[in-house]
From TrEMBL:
A molecular-function term among this protein's GO annotations: zinc ion binding
InterPro entries for this protein: Fun_TF, Zn2-C6_fun-type_DNA-bd_sf, Zn2-C6_fungal_TF, Zn2Cys6_DnaBD
Entry keyword annotation includes Nucleus: yes
Stated name of the protein: Zn(2)-C6 fungal-type domain-containing protein
Keywords: Nucleus
Keyword Nucleus included in the entry's annotation: yes
Residue span, Zn(2)-C6 fungal-type domain: 13-43
Amino acid sequence: MPPRRSHKKSRAGCRRCKSRKIKCDEVHPRCGNCLKHGVPCDFEHPELTESLNIPDTPGSFGAPSPSFSNLSSGFSPAPGPSVAARTLLTICRNPDPPAFSAASKNNRLMELKLLHHYTTMTCKTLTICDPSAENIWRDTVPSLAFSGNSFLVDALLSVSALHLRAISPHDQQLVQASHAYMASTLSDYGSNLSKGINASNAEALFLTAALIAFQSTASRIFVRDNGGDVKSRSNQYTLPLSWFHAFQGVKAVVASSWQWLRNSGIVVPIIQGQPALNLNLSSQESTYFANLLVGLDGELESLESDPASHMLTRQAYQHAVAVLNWAHKIPLSGAPMVFLATVSRRYVELLQARRPRALAILACFFGLLKCLDGVWWLRGVARREVLGIVHMFDPDDQVWWPRLQWPLRVVLHDGDVIPPEVWGADWEAESVLLDQANRQNGGGFINHIEMLSQMFAAMQNLPPGLPADTVNYAYSGAEQLISAQLVMARQEHGFSNGSRAGND
C-alpha cells in the first residue's frame, strides 16, 4: 500500500476559508479562494478580523435586533437580472445574512442610542460643504427609512455606530453593532437590487448606496497600521479598493434609476450640493499634475498591445489626472471625494494591477484629502495612505519618486492651513472662481448624470451573452465619452479650456 500523501494544515488561513472548511493558501493580501470567487478576504480587510461569526437571517428595524455576538465578514455574490443590476451587484457583494436573537432590552437601548446619535450628531457630518442637505439627512431620510425600507434603517444605525466608535474606539459593543448593522444592510440591499430598481425603491436604494460608501470610507480610520516601521508598512499596506467599489456603486445606482430620481425632492438636492464637475481634458495645456502623464505613450507601447486596451488605459489616466487638477483648485468644497466616483473602471483595474502610474495618481488623490483632515471620518487618512503608497516605491526610482514629492510634502505639513507655496494654489481665490463657474453651469452634477443614465439605458440593449470584459470596457469607454461630451458642451456655452475655473 503506497504511503499516504503528506498534508500541511492551514493554521493561519483567512476566516472565510475556515468557515467553509477548505484549505487556504494564505496568500496576502487576498487568498486564492477569495480571489477566485470574487469576495473580500480578511487578509485584505484587517478591520474585519474581530472575533465575529456569521449570522443566518436578515433583519429589519422593528423586528428583533441583531445579536452582536454572532457576526461575520463572509460575503457571497447575488445575481442580477440585467446589465445594470449585474454591475451594481458585483460592486457590492451581498453578505450572508446576519442572525437575530430574541429582542433584548440591551439591544433595544442600543438602537435608541444609535438613532438618537444619528439625528443629533451624525447627520451633520454626512456633507462637507452643503448645510442645506443636513435637514434631508436628519428628518427626511429617517422618515423614508421607517416607511418599510429596513435596509436604509440598518444603514443609518451602522453609520451612527461608526461615528460613536470614533469617539469611543475601545467600546466593543459599538464595534460589533457597526458590523452587525452593515452586514444586515448589505444583505437586504443586495436582495432588493437583484429584484430590480423601480419607482418605489429608487430613493431608498440611492441613499443606502451613499451610506454604504460613507461607511466604507469611514471604516478605514480604524484600520491598524505599523507606525513608522517602513518595512512593515510596505509589506502589510493594502490599497483601499473598497472605497472605489462603494462609490462606483452609488454612481451605478444613480445612473440606472435616474428616470425616477431626476424629480426627487430628496436625491436631487443632495446631488446638487456637490461642486460642478469642470474638467480640462486637453493634452495641449500644462496643468498642475501634468507630470503624472509624462511618458505615458512609451509605457502604453510596451504594456498595451491591444489597440482597444491601449485607448482605454490612456483615457483612464487622462481622466483621473483631470479630476485631480479640478479638485486641487477647490479642495475645501469636498471636490476630492468626487474622484472615487468619477474615475473609470479601467483606472480601478490599473490600481488592482499596481501599475506605478496608477499608484502615483492615487497618492496625489490622498494628498488632496489632507485639507479635509478635520472631518472625523477622514482624520489621519491622508497621511497614512500616502505613506503606505510611497513605501511601495523604491526611493532610488528616478522616474516615479520625484512625482511623489507633492503628496509627501502636503501630508507631512503641520498646521490646519496649508500655505499656497506648499499646496500649489490659493484656495480662497479659487473658491470665488468656483462660485462663478457653478452659477454658469447651473445643473452641477445633473448634466453629467443625465448622460451617464443614457449610457446605462443603452447598455440594457446590449446583446445577451457578451463577455464580462466587453461589458466593462463598454462602461469605461462610455464614461470617457461622457467626459468628452461635457467638454464640448462647456465650450458651446462660452467656457474655454484656458479659463481657470470653467475648464472641462
